[in-house]
Design brief:
heterodimer, A: about 700 residues, alpha/beta, Rossmann fold, Immunoglobulin-like, eight-stranded mixed sheet, 32 strands, about 25% helix, B: Rossmann fold, 2 domains, six-stranded mixed sheet, 11 helices, about 45% helix
């Protein structure tokens, strides 16, 4: 039998106490109250003979209780040789989480992180299990518990180091919350084994403030799993970052194209003066004159840069110590050319007619060069027009030609000004005859039953914008779509007649408005709904490209490839790679300009660092505690591995056997017996009259 | 002085055992039980109707104030009798009770303090029944409560309340209360001192003398526990003085002889002082029925009166 804390055996010396007490029992401290000591003289106390013990059974019980207590405190256990240390239920399980996010690219951080992992490898005992996970946006195991136990103990450190040598900090954001949750789940997943040893996550990270920890907020941390944070700190220096901002809302009205970037300076920065300018996609020197900006530590400034002509595709910041977050890649906005054909005979200056309003509703901006081209009566409709607007009666030739284009996928907006114009749409809609009559509402009609789920109206779905009742309609054409059951009524008048109807024709569609926006018919042209409705139509027709969302590294990028279209990707570095046909997802691993060749089309996408990742001010460990993670303060002790191993094995064996419980139980039993015996002896010895003191 | 043999009417069987008596919680009820039992026991006895100082008539002699002539008696008996004043005839009794810590000792289920309080209450109740004025002074090392002799009905209740207060104090000073009584009691009367007298006796003689000089008739009850007389303990223990807290390790077997000797001497000294000063002295132990103490008290009074008249 061995003892985990043999020093407690010294408590056995307390055995002498009951023996002494039994010897000097007669020197009692029992008190008797007496009215007056006037007539009493002190008597010298008599001792029992030294050689004679009274109540030897009591003495034995007391000695046994003390001895068992001392033994119990010494934590006895039966030592046994363990053949498979990994299978020990009391072995510690430890996951080392190594941060490989972009902020770890800062000078010296990765080397320090590897040194920390090395320290962990040295401190671990052979019985323990260890796994190494690397994480940035996603967490991935470098070495699992299975790999660890399968590797001989002396080769484990080398294996971990080899695995670590294969990875290096990438460009991803730090999703610390998800990584911690994943590691905690991996720790409590014991794969059917009963493991009672400590479970610990060792986080080796720079704990940048930009780490996404919000995932931890709703997470209930599993019991028994502790977290130890090994923070690697960067050298004191200035880190400023540059972040691309979305276009201002009024960007379309600007005369010259600009790009806005936010320059953010870290709170612990030592410098405040930076310059921002355009560079080529491969980096290098600033092109043209940079914009000088002054950003105090912990603050940010927005810098507007004009889009230069030429090959500049990135904006770079100069003047700080850390380079990883100093470049944003920008695809300079290119004005999109769109043409809208208008079939109607009126003058462009007649302020009562549809054409007048249409031209003003679709102006040319730096991003969008819109041309509204009137089509003279009888002449052909140009094929390059994105959308054709018809308000007047189509000639038979026009109708036939237009139907061809619609069948091929064109979108036509028809708002017949009168019954004749409406009837002339019959060939376009594929109808032989189309009964149309003039609808004259009493007073005025309003739009009702609008289908806000349709792409034309989704922008108005919000209750703040869904009020169409201010648009009064005085005249409309009562249209009958019973011959075209596939026609979808998007809005009706309050009289129940269809107001806006989408009629699919081949690949294209014709949107028919029963009432035009000329001042004679309705107030639509002067309402706030008119322009958004037209742009919604342009977007729906597929002619107007929606503004692309900013793309971050390691985020999935949606590709518009068809099922059989091959995708060739040209990244910022390296040769072009061909993705398998039908791929519509791509995950860029580093920032830069990506060019996708999809079935003859070319799509260009700028991929940038997650702007949050640039916030490198260290996060206080308290923040993790606040989120519920049980952060341990102690560091692994520097006990020599062999001695530590022995001690740990002893602790494990003792923890399994728990012999001390039996010793404590036996102690309690002996004490109970002692109390009963002593109580009986005391009752027997009481013969003197008891004094009575109130 | 030992208690005299009780009359046959007070023989065992009619007496209440102190242990049973002390089981009664209310002091007033205890006193009433003793007095009524006592009076019941005296029924048909030769002592029926006697009083400590009963009102009497005396024959008219020329020169007496005619205002005090009792005309009713004259009408009945055709004799001139002078009615004596209430003030003259009624007894004024001042009970002086020791409430020091040493009185809290008791070996028989009740303490000396309980016994002494019951004794005082019994006397008070008895005298009150007779229409006498009773007062009370309690003391330890200081005077605690002082109630002048009165005859009112609620006065008895106040007296009981004062007697029921728990004993306190760290010493017994016999001189101060007696001097106080001498100062406060101008009129002649009876002073009954109830104490264990377990205190130095130097001052006792002088104080009692002072009382006698002020015209007070004095009676002394020394209340003791039986265990105090014989040191009835077996196991050697630390004896703790209840008043001073002083501790002394005593083996009773070894110390008993010396203790009894000193105690006997002390008791003799107390009774000697009383004898010398003509003070009625009575020693009672807490295992004696109270009726006997009351009987003995009255008997002594009667003898003194007889003696006085003789």
């Amino acid at each position: 039998m061995s003892f985990l804390t043999p020093l407690f055996l010294l408590g056995g010396l307390a055995l002498a106490l009951p023996v002494i007490f039994h010897l000097i029992r007669r020197t009692t401290r029992e008190r008797t109250g007496f009215s007056s000591l006037m007539f009493l003289l002190p008597t010298p106390p008599r001792l029992t003979k030294r050689g004679r013990l009274e109540h030897w059974l009591l003495l034995l019980l007391r000695c046994l209780a003390l001895a068992l207590l001392a033994l119990g405190f010494a934590r006895p256990f039966f030592s046994q040789t363990t053949t498979n240390a990994a299978a020990l239920p009391g072995a510690a399980r430890r996951i080392v989480l190594v941060d490989t996010s972009a902020s770890m690219r800062r000078a010296g951080l990765w080397a320090e992180a590897r040194a920390r992992v090395d320290l962990e490898l040295r401190a671990i005992s052979p019985g323990d299990q260890m796994a190494v996970f690397a994480f940035a946006r996603e967490s991935r195991p470098l070495l699992s518990f299975g790999d660890w136990t399968a590797t001989p103990p002396d080769a484990r450190a080398a294996l971990v180091n080899a695995k670590l040598a294969e990875v290096s900090p990438g460009w991803g954001a730090t999703n610390l919350g998800a990584a911690l949750i994943g590691a905690a789940e991996a720790l409590i997943d014991t794969e059917g084994q009963t493991l009672t040893g400590p479970r610990e996550i060792v986080l080796v990270s720079d704990l940048a403030a930009g780490s996404h920890t919000e995932g931890l907020q709703g997470y209930e941390w599993p019991k028994g799993v502790t977290l130890r944070v090994e923070t690697v700190a960067a050298k004191a220096g200035t880190n400023a970052s540059v972040q691309l901002l979305a276009d201002p809302t009024d960007g379309d009205r600007q005369t010259a194209a600009t790009v806005r970037v936010r320059v953010r300076n870290a709170a612990d920065a030592q410098r405040e003066q930076f310059s921002v300018g355009w560079v080529s996609a491969t980096g290098g020197a600033l092109l043209g004159a940079p914009v000088e900006t002054y950003v105090p530590p912990g603050q940010s400034r927005i810098v507007t840069l004009p889009v230069p002509a030429g090959a500049a595709q990135a904006i770079a910041l100069r003047g700080d110590d850390e380079d990883f977050d100093n470049t944003v890649f920008v695809i300079p906005p290119v004005a999109q050319k769109l043409s809208v054909a208008y079939v109607g005979g009126e003058s462009a200056d007649d302020a009562r007619q549809p054409f007048y309003f249409l031209r003003r509703a679709l102006p040319t901006t730096p991003r969008l060069a819109l041309a509204v081209t009137p089509v003279p009566p009888g002449s052909g409709v140009p094929g390059d027009a994105a959308v054709v607007v018809v308000t007047d009666a189509l000639s038979a030739g026009q109708a036939t030609a237009l139907r061809e284009q619609v069948l091929a996928g064109k979108t036509v907006l028809a708002a017949p000004k009168n019954v004749a114009a409406a009837v002339a749409l019959a060939p376009l809609l594929g109808l032989a005859t189309w009964p149309v009559e003039e609808g004259r509402p009493k007073g005025y009609a309003m739009l009702a039953e609008i289908d806000f789920k349709h792409p034309l109206f989704t922008a108005f779905a919000d209750p703040r914008f869904s009020d169409f009742s201010k648009i009064h309609v005085w005249k409309y054409r009562r249209l009958d779509f019973s011959a075209r059951p596939e026609a979808r009524v998007l809005a009706k008048f309050d009289s129940g007649d269809p107001a806006i109807v989408e009629v699919p024709v081949g690949k294209g569609r014709v949107v028919v408005l029963a009432s035009g926006w000329n001042t004679e018919d309705s107030q639509l042209a002067v309402s706030s709904k008119f322009v958004p409705l037209l742009y919604a139509l342009l977007e729906w027709s597929g002619a107007l490209a929606a503004p692309g969302a900013p793309q971050a590294v390691e985020e999935n990028l949606a590709l518009s490839a068809g099922p059989n279209e091959a995708v060739v990707v040209t990244g910022p570095t390296g040769p072009a790679t061909t993705l398998p046909a039908g791929t519509n997802r791509f995950t860029p691993l580093q920032p830069g300009i990506y060019r996708f060749e999809i079935g003859g089309r070319t799509e260009v996408q700028a991929v940038n660092l997650d702007p949050v990742e640039a916030r490198t001010t260290p996060l206080p460990t308290d923040e993790l505690e606040r989120l519920g993670a049980p952060v341990a303060r102690s560091k692994p002790s520097a006990v020599s591995p062999i001695g530590q191993e022995m001690a740990l094995q002893g602790a494990e064996a003792e923890g399994r056997q728990k012999l001390w419980r039996w010793f404590v139980v036996a102690t309690l039993l002996f004490l109970l017996g002692e109390s009963l015996l002593a109580g009986r002896a005391a009752r027997r010895s009481v013969t003197a009259p008891a004094s009575l003191a109130p | 002085m030992a208690v005299a043999n009780p009359p046959p009417a007070l023989a065992a069987g009619t007496l209440i055992e102190p242990k049973a008596l002390m089981g009664i919680r209310s002091l007033e009820l205890r006193a009433r039980a003793v007095v009524e039992g006592f009076l019941h026991g005296l029924h048909r006895s030769p002592f029926h109707g006697f009083s400590v100082e009963f009102t009497e008539y005396r024959a008219y002699t020329p020169g007496d104030d005619l205002r005090y002539l009792d005309w009713r008696v004259f009408a009945r008996s055709d004799r001139y009798n002078i009615k004596k004043f209430e003030d003259e005839t009624n007894l004024r009794c001042q009970l002086v009770a020791d409430q020091s810590q040493s009185m809290t000792f008791g070996s028989g289920g009740h303490t000396k303090a309980h016994y002494a309080a019951t004794l005082a209450a019994t006397l008070a109740y008895f005298l009150h029944l007779q229409g006498d004025a009773v007062g009370l002074l309690t003391f330890d090392e200081n005077v605690r409560d002082f109630l002048p002799p009165r005859q009112r009905a609620d006065h008895l209740r106040l007296l009981m309340l004062a007697l029921e207060k728990p004993a306190g104090g760290r010493a017994t000073d016999l001189a101060a209360p007696l001097e106080r009584v001498a100062q406060l009691t101008r009129k002649r009367g009876l002073v009954v001192l109830i104490s264990d007298f377990l205190a130095p006796l130097e001052q006792l003689e002088r104080s009692l003398l002072l009382l006698a000089a002020s015209g007070q008739e004095t009676a002394v009850f020394q209340v003791l526990d039986p265990a105090e007389l014989t040191l009835a303990f077996e196991r050697p223990t630390l004896f703790q003085d209840m008043e001073t807290g002083r501790e002394v390790y005593v083996d009773p077997a070894a110390a008993r002889a010396g203790y009894v000797e000193k105690m006997t001497a002390h008791l003799a000294a107390v009774s000697g002082i009383c004898e010398k000063l003509g003070v009625a002295y009575q020693r009672v132990t807490t295992d004696q029925p109270l009726e006997l103490a009351l009987f003995e008290f009255l008997e002594q009074r009667r003898r003194r009166k007889t003696r006085g008249r003789v």
